[in-house]
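MarR family transcriptional regulator
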Amino acid sequence: MSTALTGQHIGRAHYAVRALLERKLAPAGFGFETWIPLNAVGTGGPIPQPDLIAFVTGGLRISEQRARDGVTTLIEAGYLATDEKHALALTDSGRQLWTRISDEVRPVTSYLFDGFTEAEKATAASVLLKVTERADAALG
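Structure:
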């Protein structure tokens, strides 16, 4: 494969990293599309359900129903619940699960990015953000 950046490089990197993550998620009984809302709430705190659905729908480019199904799975499993402000928050079991998976993923993430300078990571982030913006614009 050529070293000139193409969509193939981006896709292969995405699926390779996703496969690593899904290995960590499999023992918990759910996949990538369910991890995204759990991680969003775990990292950002309580989120109103419509905002969480919009975040997942926009981020993963999936239907609203698929995003809703993933969130519903987390609620029904007891990992997310509505807080006093009517936002979805981690339950105690949700926090334990999110912490365990995050702790398992952290060394993998460190390994993947180890050895790159901050400038290289900044350049890669800039290119990927621009590609995403252009793809979003093309999608309308």
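The chain has a mean pLDDT of 93.
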